[in-house]
Amino acid sequence: MAFDGITIANVVSEMKRELLGGRLYKIAQPEADELLLTIKTGNGQKRLFISADASLPLIYLTQSNKQSPMTAPNFCMLLRKHLQNGRITHISQPGLERIVQISVEHLDELGDLRKKTLIVEIMGKHSNIIFCDEDGRIIDSIKHISAAVSSVREVLPGKPYFVAHTQDKLDALSTDYDTFWKAVSAKPQPVFKALYGSFTGISPILAQELCYEADIDGELPTAALDEAAYHRLFERFENMVRVVREEDFGPNIAYTGSQPVEFGALPLSMYTHGPDKTVAYPSMSALLESYYAEKNTLTRIRQKSADLRRIVQTALERNIKKYDLQLKQMQDTQKRDTYRIWGELLNTYGYDAKPGAKSLEAVNYYTNEKVTIPLDPNLTATENAKKYFEKYGKLKRTYEALSELTREVKSQIDHLESISTALDIALSEADLAQIREELAQSGYIRKKGNAKKAKLTSRPLHYISSDGFHIYVGKNNLQNDQLTFQFASGNDWWFHAKGIPGSHVIVKTEGEKELPDRTFEEAGSLAAYYSKGRGQDKVEIDYVQKKQIKKPAGAKPGFVVYYTNYSLMAECDISALTLVND
C-alpha cells in the first residue's frame, strides 16, 4: 500500500484538470501538519487536502471540510498573507518523484505581480510542505529541519530549496531498453526488488504487478532471466510509462475477500483470481479519500489520545502488579484450614503425644486418613494446638482481607481495560472528551478547580441492519450505561462480547417485533467488532433482552450483570451494515 510516484502522477493529473487557473479562496491548517486549500474555479469550488504527517502523508482533492482551530497557526497566517486570492498557474511533478509543486501568482502590497511555489513532499517521515519565493528560496515550511536533524538538507527560512537525492535511482520516464537491462541485471536481487530499487516512482506492489503481467516470477533472481524475459518485462515497463505520459490511469483497490489489501494507479491484474478482486474508482482522489479517510482519522485520534493512553496504561500496569502480588499472598493462606485441623486433632489426640516428640500421627476424622502433625518439642500438645489455631486465625483474617482487596483491584483492572478498548474505538475528539470525563470521575485524572465541565457531545454509533432494524453501539462506558439503562426499552435486545471489554449493542425492537436471525447475527458482529476481540476470526457473544440486565449498586460505569442469556459465535465483519450519520 504505497503512495508511490505513479500515484502522485495520477493525483497531479487530476489537480491540473480541476485546479489550474483557479484562485485560492481559503487557506486552513486543521492540524499541525495539514493544510486544506479551498480553490474557486470555473467549475465551482474545489478543496485540496494536504498532510505531511510522518505516519500518513497524503494529497488529494476532496469535497469534505475540516474544522480549523480558533487561532490560525503561523504557517497558515503566512500563506494567507502571500497567497490569499492568488491564481494557480502551474502544477508539476519532477520526474516521478513523490513531490508536487504548485505555482501561484499573486499581487504584493504594492500591486506588483509575484510568483510563489508551494511544494508538497510525500516522503514518509521526511514529508513536508515548503513555501518558496520566485528565486527558489524557502520562505517557511510546516516542519523546520535543521542540520542537527538532517545532514542531507536543511529546510529553514532563507535556505535554497532543492530536491534531496538520497537514492541513486533512474528516471523511469526517460529510460531505454539498454539502460533498463543494465540497471536491473546489475542487481543480484529478486527481479521485483531490482525494479523498484532502480527506478523512481515504482513501489514494490507495482514492481510485482509488472512481473506478473510479463509472466515472470518476481521472486526469481535477476540472473535467472533470459533475454526474452527482459524484453517482456521492458514491454510492460514501457506500457506503464505510456500510461503516465498520456495520463491514462486506472485507479483501483485490490481486495482479498472483504479486506482491502493494496491500491494502485494502474489496474492490479494479479488480484483477479480466487478470493481476490479489484474495484475501480473514478479518480485517485476518490480512492485515497475512501481508503485513507478512516485511517487518517484514527491516526489523528490516536495521537490526541496519547496522554489518556499513558494514564490508563500506567494505572493498568500498577494494578496488575498489585493484583499478582495479592494472588501470591492468597496462595500463602491456603494452608489455613490445615492448621485449623491440626489444632483440632491435637486437642483430640494430644494425650498420645510423648513429651519432647517432634510429630504426632493421628487419624483425620474429616477424611479418615492418617496425617502426621509437626510438633515443637519444647511445647506441650495443648500449646502446639494453640499455636496452630493462632496461625489459622492470622491466615483466615489475611485471606478475608485479601479476598475483598483482590475483588476491588480486579474490578479496577476490568474497568481500565474497558477504557483502553474505548480509546481504540474513539473516532472523534468528542469521544475522547467523554473518556476523559470518565477518568476524572474515577479519580485517574485530577479535575482543575476552575475548569468548566466539558460539554459532552459524543453519541453512540447508529447502524441499520439488512432487515431495517436500528442498532446502536456505545463507544465508551458512559455511553454504554446511557444506552442500556436510559435509551433501551425492556424488550430491546442487548449484545456484548463474552468475558472481554467491549461495547454495549442495543437492537431496537419497536415494541414486540421479532428479530430475524440475520439481525441477531449482524448485531453480534457489531459487538464482536467493537470489542477487544476485534482481531479474532470469531468472538463469542452473549445476548439477552434488556429487561434481564441489572446494574449493581456502586458498580463502575459500563458494568452490568445478567443471570440468563443466549450465546452465538460472531465474525468481526460489519460490511453488510449501514452506518447512519445522525
From TrEMBL:
SUPFAM superfamilies referenced in this protein's UniProt entry, alphabetically: S13-like H2TH domain (SSF46946)
Gene Ontology molecular-function annotations: ribosomal large subunit binding; rRNA binding; tRNA binding
Keywords noted in UniProt: Protein biosynthesis, RNA-binding, rRNA-binding, tRNA-binding
GO terms of biological process kind: rescue of stalled ribosome
Pfam entry (one): NFACT_N
GO CC terms, sorted: RQC complex
Coiled coil: none
NFACT RNA-binding domain residues: 461-554
PANTHER family referenced in this protein's UniProt entry, alphabetically: NUCLEAR EXPORT MEDIATOR FACTOR NEMF (PTHR15239), RIBOSOME QUALITY CONTROL COMPLEX SUBUNIT NEMF (PTHR15239:SF6)
Known role: Key component of the ribosome quality control system (RQC), a ribosome-associated complex that mediates the extraction of incompletely synthesized nascent chains from stalled ribosomes and their subsequent degradation. RqcH recruits Ala-charged tRNA, and with RqcP directs the elongation of stalled nascent chains on 50S ribosomal subunits, leading to non-templated C-terminal alanine extensions (Ala tail). The Ala tail promotes nascent chain degradation. May add between 1 and at least 8 Ala residues. Binds to stalled 50S ribosomal subunits.
Subunit structure comment from the entry: Associates with stalled 50S ribosomal subunits. Binds to RqcP.
HAMAP family, alphabetized: RqcH_B
Protein family: Belongs to the NEMF family.
Protein name, as recorded: Rqc2 homolog RqcH
Source organism per UniProt: Candidatus Acetatifactor stercoripullorum
